[in-house]
Automatic annotation (TrEMBL):
GO terms, molecular function: identical protein binding; L-tyrosine-2-oxoglutarate transaminase activity; pyridoxal phosphate binding
Family: Belongs to the class-I pyridoxal-phosphate-dependent aminotransferase family.
Protein name: Aminotransferase
Keywords tagged on the record: Aminotransferase, Pyridoxal phosphate, Transferase
EC code: 2.6.1.-
InterPro entries, per the entry: Aminotransferase_I/II_large (IPR004839), Asp_trans (IPR000796), NHTrfase_class1_PyrdxlP-BS (IPR004838), PyrdxlP-dep_Trfase (IPR015424), PyrdxlP-dep_Trfase_major (IPR015421), PyrdxlP-dep_Trfase_small (IPR015422)
Domain (Aminotransferase class I/classII large): residue spans on this chain: 27-391
Organismal lineage: Bacteria, Pseudomonadati, Pseudomonadota, Gammaproteobacteria, Lysobacterales
Statement: the UniProt record of this protein carries the keyword Transferase: yes
Oligomer and partners: Homodimer.
Domain of life per record: Bacteria
Length: 398
């Protein structure tokens, strides 16, 4: 049966980590990952999470199945975090949230839902975008097209190009939008630009699909949700949000995400949710409990929530400090042209380094980055900033 099965290449970013692990140099640095590391180079376990985990272990509750659409305390808290607890959409019963296997599972389930319900299966993603967007939507039969997004000259958003491309899409096209901390570029829209994008989406009858994998990683929980909040306030009555707690709770391996669908009426919302439950039932039947129980435990307690917000704030501030420090050290090493890194948001920066420069960083300095020049700022530390800045300055001069 498998004699003719072809070997396909592995994920290039995961391959990078394998090469990094095999590198014997003590000064090696892995900037290819998509994970936040603390100053000691570890993935943090947040205090608020640890406290809930200890309580859950002590309680040792029976391990029954969760409902198909997940832990109710988790999905309710997620809706409130996305839209704000006072959102009229929530009160109107127009928002249905399903617990998913990470943000990736939310994208996949959302893609399957839209594949069945929208007039034609085309999705426009930013150029560039997180590579898995193309894979996930392609896997369920979408035609995946690009819209202009990043401007290599300014290292920011080519906003005029983006609007022009959105305007040229067929009505009914799904448009995938990164709410904040754009992966891979770090280039985000301002709130004023979001308003303009929303106007074009409404005018052209495009279907918004917001991916929010980094809420709280740039400006704050509410501020980073501006795209969702502005969309909710606009005349657009139907849209989808895929969200993830992988980064904001540092719970990568627990696979905690959610698919949230806004419908025009409460009745339609119930029908949509029934369809989603059918999709989940045929995929994995019901989600797993532990990660969701951790998140719900934190968000359901005023004290733990405040502690989580403070810890999230510390991660965010540390990323800002690393960006500022990197820019400062690069300037000191004669490379002031990297000042844009400070204007970019979230874990990633499209550094502008070429593939050849990225290879030199790896070969000469043991610094690993993605071939596109994407670096993970959140994987730097104050201890290795100087080394990385010196190396980047050296390869960018050569
Ligand atoms: N969307 C984007 C833009 C991401 O960067 C990621 C994670 N790297 C995801 C979705 C998926 O998140 P998760 O790991 O929770 O599946």
């Amino acid at each position: 049966f498998f004699a003719n099965v072809e070997l396909v290449p592995g994920d290039p970013i995961l391959g990078l980590t394998e090469a990094y692990n095999a590198d014997a140099r003590a000064t090696k640095v892995n900037l290819g990952v998509g994970i936040y590391y603390d100053e000691a180079g570890r993935i943090p376990v947040l205090d608020a999470v640890r406290e809930v985990e200890q309580r859950l272990a002590a309680e040792a509750k029976p391990r029954g199945y969760l409902p198909i659409d997940g832990l109710p305390d988790y999905t309710r808290a997620t809706r409130e975090l996305l839209f704000g607890a006072e959102s009229p959409l929530l009160a109107a019963g127009r928002v249905a949230t399903t617990q998913t296997i990470g943000g990736s599972g939310a994208l996949r389930t959302g893609a399957e839902l839209l594949r069945k319900t929208l007039p034609h299966a085309t999705i426009a993603i930013s150029n560039p975008s997180w590579e898995n967007h193309r894979a996930v939507f392609g896997a369920v039969g979408f035609d995946v097209v690009d819209y202009t997004y990043f401007d290599p000259a300014t290292h920011g958003v080519d906003f005029a190009g983006m609007l022009a491309d959105l305007r040229s899409l067929e009505p009914g096209t799904v448009v995938l939008l990164h709410a904040c901390c754009h992966n891979p570029t770090g280039a985000d829209l301002t709130d004023a630009q979001w308003r303009q994008v929303i106007e074009v989406l409404a005018e052209r009858d495009l279907f918004p699909f917001i991916d929010m994998a980094y809420q709280g990683f740039d400006r704050g929980i509410d501020e980073d949700a501006a795209a969702v909040r502005l969309m909710a306030e606009s005349g657009i009555s139907e849209f989808v949000v895929a969200s993830s707690y992988s980064k904001s709770f540092s719970l990568y391996g627990e696979r905690v995400g959610a698919l949230t669908v806004v419908s025009a009426t409460a009745e339609q919302s119930r029908a949509v949710q029934s369809q989603i439950k059918r999709l989940v039932r045929a995929n994995h039947s019901s989600p797993s409990n532990h990660g969701a129980a951790l998140v719900a435990g934190v968000l359901g307690s005023a004290e733990l929530r405040a502690r989580w917000e403070a810890e999230l704030g510390q991660m965010r501030e540390r990323i800002h400090a690393l960006r500022a420090g990197l820019v400062e050290q690069l300037a000191e090493h004669g490379a002031p042209e990297f000042a844009f890194i400070q204007d970019q948001a979230g874990m990633f920066s499209y550094s502008g380094l070429s593939r050849a420069q990225v290879e030199r960083l790896r070969d000469e300095f043991g610094i690993y980055a993605v071939g596109t020049g994407r670096i993970c700022v959140a994987a730097l530390s104050l201890g290795n900033l100087g080394y990385v800045a010196k190396a980047v300055a050296a390869v960018s001069r050569g």
